[in-house]
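Revision sheet: structure tokens.
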Amino acid sequence: MEEIDYSILFRWFIGLSLDDPIWSPTTFSKNRDRLLEGEIASSFFDAVLDQARAAGLLSDEHFTVDGTMLEAWASLNSFRRKDAEPPQPPDDPGNPTVKFHGEPRKNDTPASTTDPDAQLYRKGHGKEAKLAYLGHVLLDNRQGLVANVGATAATGTAERNAALDRLLTASRAKTVGADKNFDVAGLVANLRELEITQQVPQKTRRAIDRRTTRHAGYAVSQRKRKPIEQVFGWMKTVGGLRKLRHRGGELVDWIVTFTAAAYNLIRLRSLLLRA
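Predicted:
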């Protein structure tokens, strides 16, 4: 509110003249809540995608899917047992000492007092576990535009479940590329029921075989799935999602969707200029 009071740029952007009074901070807070209730982020995302579709930049048939870890705005010091007694006064109110020695930390026993929706998650074996969410992107392979997006709790099966949910919205989908973590028999079977061919790097004990890998489209799909990492990189650096600034699953999903819409808008501008 203080910025709006003296910034001519902000006043111009929101339509206030130099003499118009600014709103009170409580009005700002109420309107922020209205943004969530009105699903503004998803509406904005759909509007940008409709522009891309009208320009013929979406294939609606060939996709790539992947997920990424989003570090929650909560520290491990806030991770407490759900059935624990009220803690004693901290030794340091600003940065209290929390001892986990000899106590397993699992999502079914403790929870974060700062952000209860955040879950302990690690990127791989030997990696440090952090309180996090998972962001999910369904990428259209034609021009690298985000076709669907969202955030979920960070669980072991969240990426595969989210991939299936997002592909269900793509009624014309024929193929989907992904990394080797998606080479799971259950997911492959579900996609075959939907008549969607899953094209992933094969594991030693693989669910896909030569029926998929022998086609030329398999190699093309493997090349096309790499730009999805560029999307995650942009969202974390330019979009500011490397460390989340929102708490709670609803808010995190909102900001991830809004950030993906901004990515599409910038990508769309570049594509149209090139055309």
